[in-house]
Specification:
heterodimer, A: alpha+beta, Butyryl-Coa Dehydrogenase, subunit A, domain 1, Butyryl-CoA Dehydrogenase, subunit A, domain 2, Butyryl-CoA Dehydrogenase, subunit A, domain 3, four-stranded mixed beta sheet, B: 418 residues, alpha+beta, 3 domains, four-stranded antiparallel beta sheet, 45% helix
């Protein structure tokens, strides 16, 4: 048994931290909110570091690594609220990597010459046999796109809301019902019938798009349904890792302030009320870290447990980010709620993330469903 | 930036599989249990033992067999009858015992915490005299640390030992929350030996025979109505000079060793209390409506995810131990998660089941009754959060009014206010 990082993983994480430290990501996040523009595109940095090929086999030009390594990189992105389009790209490449029919796409995606985005679809659970997609609004989940025609003539129609990193992507990877069968597809973003409406909600570091497909010509994929489900759960694990990275830095900043700031003649961190709220963030962070190990190990080590592990990680990490962001504001007092401070940026990240990709609540629901189904 | 050489990494080293040595030990433990499990005492179901004296006798005998089979004292050095193995082997042993459906050792406190303290601080004569019978269950031990006015602030113990002219000691006072005291042969006791120095300095650790004149054990009933713990009273008990463990005045350092092993024990046996997500999910799944109810599912999913995390926090602790690191106070956070997760689970299940969950023979009634007290076991939750905030996050400590002041002066101040 070993639940520690390997030397290579430590190196990977430190290299990511170093690469991202060259950018003023937090400042840019605030400026982008002010200007309506976007933070610096960090895809060139991702390319240089080899992140686009993390989950693509070496035979296809990738690094052939696994979820845990990808989670380490996402954690570093989360620490500095960096806008790197990996949340959309990595699950898409994981599907394509399991699709011999799409092998020709992999080289450019592994090098980062081209960028993919995943069109998220939630697999069936113990209560529903249907796949579903995130709706643009409300609680009713949307239906999968549908395909007409067969083979090279297949055309897909449908709508997926809030697809991460879809604006600016070269290839979209999603799934559709083909004769009632959930089937993966890849479609060129520039193809006729594809429209991607870029949307921004509350957090300028998160590039989202409403994707509409109208008889769009697709390449049908031969990835097994299991790989398609895996992509959803992988996304939950990645968003968990990214969230915990943000929790780490929010906690660091809050603790540093609690040591420096004095009231009534003593550092505020010496008061139990403040100390306990910070240890609560640490408790949730540590729980989340432990579940990242579970998720990272199980994707290959015990794949039947991966849905449980990945969604448990999302459930805990999502709530940890909520707690960390609110605690960051309250520990800083009034200044923590002002535009000049970084705390609102973490708060905005927490608020939006909580509602993306099924939301934290559906991850918790999946945990319950997986356990109930086994009981 | 220099490019990373991806070829070095074979996908990371994180894994939960046994090494070949661990697999061999697991096979050995499994084979022994297969051969001997029919000799284990039956504690639940048909044919279960009912009489407490019989249960204790049977479990002591079973502990002796486990020790002979190499399934007790796994991490103890071989010279004291142990296996000289690592903490992960201890977990493997626990897993195999659970898998075989037989009870583990009776004296987990002695073998897990007190024995290792004696191994670390005891005299050679003490090790030779006490460790063998402890390991084999011939003599059960109890931990005599907490007092009515010294729990989280353990260094406030008032049980007083006075040295006599011939070097022997006279001891009086009261201990509380003492598991197994009603059938223990010995206890490891923290006493005040010098009240005129600051409180952490004037303490000494003793080995106390529980059948000596002057020792009274009384059951302490809790919310469930059952007595799982004891109060122990000492009335002018006489102890020989060689009852001291780790030197006169060194009691605090010796106690810290015990507490460190206590954290290790928690880290190794996080789910040993039965507070695990599968058990709770099964209770919800049994109700056709609840298993579909979104609010019930959300609550179950949240608490189950946290309880699952504790299992992997335990594995992280083990990895650190295996690499020679000592687990820090952050392991205490796992206890906070377990207790509060189980409290939420008890409430959720009882909300689903209704008043029947609170009937006398309900496993949930028992759990619900047990947990409020468990919140304070091993240090209150509030004190744990202070400790972790200070030692792990490095936050400044609360101003203290007891630093550097002789214990006797502190007591005089408290008495004056009262």
């Amino acid at each position: 048994m070993n639940l520690a990082l390997s030397d290579e993983q430590v190196l990977l994480r430190e290299a990511a931290r170093g690469a991202l430290s060259r950018f003023k990501t937090l400042e840019e996040a605030r400026e982008a909110l002010d200007s309506g523009g976007s933070p610096t595109d960090l895809w060139p940095t991702a390319k240089e570091a080899g992140w686009p090929g993390l989950l693509i086999d070496e035979a296809h030009g990738g690094a052939g690594l696994d979820a845990f390594d990808a989670m380490l990189v996402l954690g570093e992105c989360g620490r500095v609220l960096a806008a790197v389009a990996l949340l959309g790209h990595l699950p898409a490449t994981a599907i394509l990597n399991d699709s011999p029919a799409a092998a020709s796409l992999l080289g450019d995606l592994a090098s980062g010459e081209r960028r993919a985005a995943y069109l998220p679809a939630r697999p069936p659970d113990d209560l529903s046999e249907s796949w579903s997609v995130d709706p643009a609004s409300g609680m009713e989940r949307g239906a999968l796109p549908t395909a007409a025609g067969a083979g090279d003539d297949a055309k897909v129609s449908g709508r997926i809301a809030f697809a991460p990193d879809s604006p600016g992507a070269d290839v979209l990877v999603g799934m559709a019902l083909v004769d009632g069968q959930p089937t993966g597809f890849a479609v060129e973003a520039a193809a006729t019938g594809v429209s991607i409406e870029s949307v921004r909600r509350y957090d300028a570091t998160r590039a989202l798009g409403h994707v509409t497909l109208q008889d769009a010509p697709v390449t049908l994929l031969d990835a097994p349904e299991r790989s398609l489900a895996d992509a959803w759960h992988l996304t939950q694990a990645l968003i968990a890792a990214e969230s915990l990275g943000a929790v780490e830095s929010a906690l660091d900043v809050s603790v540093a302030y609690a040591k420096d700031r004095y009231t009534f003649g003593r550092a505020i961190g010496s008061y139990q009320a403040v100390k306990h709220s910070l240890t609560e963030v640490l408790r949730q962070l540590e729980n989340g870290r432990s579940l990242l190990y579970y998720a990272g190990w199980s994707r290959r080590g015990a794949p039947e447990e991966f849905p449980l592990a990945a969604n448990a990680a999302r459930s805990v990490a999502g709530r940890a980010l909520d707690t960390a962001a609110r605690t960051m504001i309250s520990v800083h007092g009034g200044i923590g709620a002002t535009w000049e401070h970084d705390a609102p940026l973490y708060f905005r990240r927490a608020q939006l993330t909580r509602r993306l990709l099924g939301g934290t609540e559906l991850a918790s629901d999946r945990v319950a469903g997986e356990l109930i189904a086994k009981a | 930036m220099e490019a990373i050489d991806w070829s070095v990494n074979q996908g990371g080293d994180v894994d939960l599989d046994d090494t070949p040595e661990q697999a061999a030990y697991r096979a050995q433990a499994r084979a022994w249990l297969e051969q001997h499990k029919s000799e284990a005492p039956v504690l639940t179901g048909p044919g279960a033992l009912k009489d407490e004296d019989e249960i204790v006798a049977a479990r002591r005998a079973w502990q002796g067999k486990l020790a002979e089979g190499g399934l007790a004292g796994v991490t103890w050095p071989q010279e004291y009858g142990g296996q000289g193995k690592g903490p992960i082997d201890q977990v493997i042993c626990n897993q195999e015992i659970a898998r075989a459906g037989v009870p583990g050792i009776l004296d987990a406190i002695g073998v897990g915490m007190l024995g290792p303290t004696i191994i670390a601080h005891g005299a050679e004569e003490q090790k030779a005299r006490y460790l063998g019978p402890m390991l084999h269950g011939d003599e059960v031990w109890c931990q005599l640390f907490s007092e009515p006015a010294a729990g989280s602030d353990l260094a406030a113990v008032q049980t007083r030992a006075r040295q006599q002219e011939d070097g022997s000691w006279r001891l009086s006072g009261q201990k509380v929350w003492t598991t197994n005291a009603q059938f223990a042969s010995y206890g490891l006791l923290l006493a005040r030996t010098d009240p005129d120095v600051p409180k952490h300095k004037g303490m000494t650790m003793f080995i106390v025979p529980m059948d000596a004149p002057g020792v009274t054990v009384r059951g302490l009933r809790q919310i469930s109505g059952e007595a799982e713990f004891n109060e122990v009273f000492f009335d002018d008990l006489s102890l020989d000079a060689d009852a001291v463990v780790g030197g006169v005045g060194n009691g605090w350092g010796t106690a810290l060793t015990t507490l460190m092993f206590e954290r290790v024990t928690i880290g190794l046996g996080g789910e040993g209390l039965g507070y695990n997500s599968n058990r709770f999910a099964a209770a919800i799944a049994a109700d056709a409506h609840a298993r579909r109810d979104p609010e019930v599912r959300r609550q179950l999913g949240e608490l189950a995810a946290e309880l699952m995390a504790v299992r992997f926090t335990g594995y992280r602790t083990l990895t650190a131990l295996q690499q020679g690191q000592i687990p820090g106070p952050e392991a205490g956070l796992a206890k906070v998660t377990i207790v509060n997760g189980a409290i939420k689970a008890g409430d959720l299940i009882a909300d689903v089941v209704g008043p029947d969950a609170l009937s006398t023979d309900s496993e949930w009634a028992y759990m619900i009754s047990f947990l409020p007290g468990l919140k304070s076991a091993g240090g209150t939750e509030e004190i744990l959060r202070n400790m972790i905030g200070e030692r792990v996050l490095g936050l400044p400590s609360e101003p203290r009014l007891d630093k550097g002041i002789p214990f006797s002066e502190l007591r005089a101040k408290e008495a004056a206010k009262a």
